[in-house]
Amino acid sequence: MPTPTPALPIEYIDKYLGLCPSSESGLKWIARPPRSRISVGSVAGSRTHEGYWRVKCNGQECRAHRIVFYLATGTDPEGVEVDHIDRDRSNNDPLNLRLAKPSLQQRNRGKQKNSTSQYKGVCLQGGRWAARCCIWLPDGTLSKTRHHGKYDTEEEAYAEVLKYRPEWA
After folding, report:
1. CATH code at 160?
2. Domain containing residue 40
3. pLDDT truncated to tens, each residue of the chain (169 aa)?
């Protein structure tokens, strides 16, 4: 179970940070915090080794995409994840961010790094290409992995996967 995300320091963010579409992090400093060497108008934050932007707010490290979401919507995403729609962790454009439950984030994954195919939901099994994917059940939950047949080409298998998961196109 993921660790719940803490509340953002709203008063600090409102006072010192602002949206800036031309900034790499999506944020800029609009006022100089006390006891800091930050210059007003500069890019707020630094990039982590994971590719996310983070900003130190009153001693608390906050992910920049959460701050951008708050400043764009006025909603503190406490306890809920903020998802990058295009899966680019550094793209903090407000139009690229949405609140997401873990199940929605899982649907937004790319193909696995160890995949034998160039297509999501297709793998090589016994010399033939297998189409495999979960499907959405009427109650809104995912089924277990379904095998939808084996094919001579990757493209045929992918076409079969797209019948069940058209959003992967």
Report:
1. 3.30.730
2. 10-106
3. 455 677 889 999 999 999 999 999 999 999 999 888 999 999 999 999 999 999 999 889 999 999 999 999 998 888 788 888 888 889 999 999 988 776 666 666 666 677 778 887 888 888 899 888 777 677 766 677 677 789 999 898 888 888 877 776 6
The H or E element that residue 22 is part of is: none
| pTM of the model as a whole | 0.69
Check whether residue 130 and residue 88 sit in a common domain: no
Tell me the CATH number at 74.
3.90.75
Q: Is residue 23 located within the same domain as residue 94?
A: yes
Note whether 81 and 142 are same-domain residues: no
* Residues 90 and 126 both lie in one domain: no
Burial 104-114 (b: 16+ CB within 10 A, else e): ebebeeeeeee
Which CA distances in Å does 162 have to 38, 66, 136, 146? 50, 32, 13, 13
Query: From CA 14, how far away is CA 67, in angstroms rounded?
Result: 10
> What single string gives the DSSP state of each residue in 34-73?
TT--PPTTSBP-EE-TTS-EEEEETTEEEEHHHHHHHHHH
